[in-house]
Design a protein that fits this description.
By secondary structure, the chain is an alpha/beta fold. The chain folds into 2 domains: about 230 residues, P-loop containing nucleotide triphosphate hydrolases (Rossmann fold, 3-Layer(aba) Sandwich), CATH 3.40.50; about 100 residues, Rossmann fold (3-Layer(aba) Sandwich), CATH 3.40.50. Helices cover about 35% and strands about 20% of the residues. It has 11 helices and 14 strands. The protein has a 9-stranded mixed sheet, sandwiched between helices.
Length: about 350
């Protein structure tokens, strides 16, 4: 353990005690947890950072959108507004948050809403006639009792210490995984062996018989960020790219792109970073320094929502800016198991 982590450990112990006591108050019934008569599916994790919650939410939308009137509900991290808000296609990330805006633009037929108060948000969506609600990043919201709790873990982080904030990366105690109805280990490398998976299963197992499944991230073809932008069929070995990211963990995307291109210049910002005009001008200067006519700017779907903000959009229009779509992918057996669990939970009482 580094010196800084050691110094922060007492604060982690205090934080852990507070989190443990809060969870017990809900377990003992001293704090109220609200259940609903409609299917409410929660997606979440215990650690900070990206574990693939957005791709999981999109997977659920694709699976459930034909089974009734569907809504997603998020906090809307990074937005400058407060309270309940229905996300519209013309919104900016500053108004609704980047991930909810991404959901709305990919699935315009569903309702996408944001609210810090998840109980109030779900109540409002049910009152307006929605049949199924998917909550993004709500595992810690004990005031709401989900019909199905999906807990995600990052495969590459499974061997790391499970220290709580601020010494570590966990915002909730590792033991709280027992509340999950299904655990999914995301970002599983294609070459992961069954021996390695069994080791993770043993690490995650609880006294409850909870399915532990494995999923990977699949990347789609480059897509223009700006409507009407030039299409490109694929990356090439002579293509240098400037990779612009403001996400928690860009390493998997970087490693996916690296073998396909001649060079990657990485402009890396913190998760949910609100790009300023100065950030974009600096990025463009770095892009212009690349001496190759085939160069591209590549970013993520989540970053693209922030790049479409009027404050920075005009600086990038006319440049070859592309995003890389991603989606969650299970193997055949785990996909069947997961779909059966989700579809069974989507039959609610009316």
């Amino acid at each position: 353990m580094g010196y800084l982590r050691a110094l922060l450990l007492p604060f982690s112990l205090l934080y852990g005690l507070a989190i443990w006591f809060r969870n017990r108050l809900y377990d003992w019934g001293w704090l109220r947890s609200v259940a609903f008569d409609r299917p409410v599916i929660v997606v979440g994790n215990l650690a900070v950072g990206g574990t693939g919650k957005s791709p999981m939410t999109e997977y659920l939308v694709r699976l459930l959108s034909s089974r009734g009137r569907l809504a997603t509900l998020s906090r809307g991290y990074g937005r400058k507004t407060r309270g309940f808000l229905e996300v519209m296609l013309g919104d900016t990330a500053r108004r609704s948050g980047d991930e909810p805006l991404q959901f709305k633009r990919k699935f315009p037929e569903i309702t996408v809403a944001v609210d810090e108060d998840r109980v109030a948000g779900v109540s409002r969506l049910i009152q307006s006639g929605h049949d199924i609600i998917v909550l993004d990043d709500a595992y810690q919201h004990r005031a709401l009792r989900p019909g199905l709790a999906i807990l995600l873990f990052d495969y590459l982080a499974m061997g790391k210490p499970k220290w709580l904030l601020p010494a570590g990366d966990y915002r909730d105690c590792f033991r709280e995984r027992w509340r999950a109805d299904v655990m999914v280990v995301t970002k599983t490398p294609p070459g992961a062996t069954e021996t390695a998976k069994d080791r993770i299963r043993r690490r995650l197992s609880t006294t409850r018989d909870v399915p532990i499944l494995f999923a990977s991230i699949g990347y789609g073809p480059l897509t223009p960020v700006f409507p009407g932008g030039p299409a490109t069929d694929a990356l090439h070995s002579d293509t240098p790219i400037l990779l612009l990211t403001g996400i928690a963990n860009p390493v998997p995307l970087y490693e996916f792109l690296l073998p396909q291109v001649s060079e990657i210049v990485h402009a890396r910002y913190p998760d949910h970073h609100a790009y300023s005009a100065a950030d974009i001008r600096k990025t463009i200067r770095r892009f212009n320094e690349i001496q190759n006519p085939h160069k591209l700017i590549v970013t993520t779907e989540k970053d693209a929502q922030r790049l479409l903000d009027p404050a920075v959009k005009d600086l990038l229009v006319g440049l070859p800016v592309y995003m890389v779509p991603i989606q969650l992918e299970f193997n055949a057996a785990d996909d069947v198991t997961f779909r059966e669990l989700v579809l069974a939970s989507s039959i609610g009482k009316r």
